[in-house]
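At this stage, I put together a protein sequence along with its fold in token form, as given directly below:
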Amino acid sequence: MKIGCHVSIAGGIWNAPKNAADLGCEVFQMFTRSPQGGPAPKIDKEVVRQFKEEMKKWNQGDCYIHAPYYINFASAKKTIREASVRIVIEELERGSLIGAKYVITHLGSSKDLSCEEALDSTKYAIAQIVEKYKGSTQLLLEISAGAGNVMGDTFEELHQILEYVKEQNVMMYHNIGICLDSAHMFASGYDIKTKDGFNSTLKIIKETVGLKKIRVIHANDSKVDLGERKDRHDHIGDGKIGVEGFKNLIKAFPEVDFILETKPDKVTEDIKKLKLLRRKT
């Protein structure tokens, strides 16, 4: 297990490894383009060379890319769905160029489609990505907090998407996995705080997506309580999950990297807390 956080790429993605090291990261997550929209900065041979040199210089084990926030595979608009597929493929290809291990994406939300239609649309979009993309970076689907009509807020739903991909392209099935987000899970109703609740959650994971599909954990405490279905991150130990929840996660997933997405004011303190829990667990 390595521990890190989401970092800035201000000035160019080659600045991310130093930004990560300065915060005490062993791994890190970043955007390679604006999360809100606009063209992606070009990644040419010089950018690749500079980025890889900085990774080595600052002793960063791996890097992960977060897809833009506007991705929506469940939109009623075909143009939005098609653009989402194209952009995630682009991010995977960009990840392959720089040696990123994973691209992590949200699935989007449905307003004008039924739950069944939205899930079918999402399944099809993910299968298209897996079919069309041939690089080394793997795709991770992030569990959501369950607000509104958001997709992927249960392990059962994520399992249905993975099974569809497996049916369509079994050879590429190993290249897709799940990103747990502790705050999202908790808000969606998965009790990771208590011993009994966490054991029940683990049982559900085993019976659906499977433990081996958990590739990265977004380690965020939650400002909202269990099942409140809102995405509100808090610093480790300051929220409703508390330190015990992260002890449970560290014990259950000792080889999975933890990435913090907490506010910059205390993220270095959060990293230190997780490293201490890792030593003690």
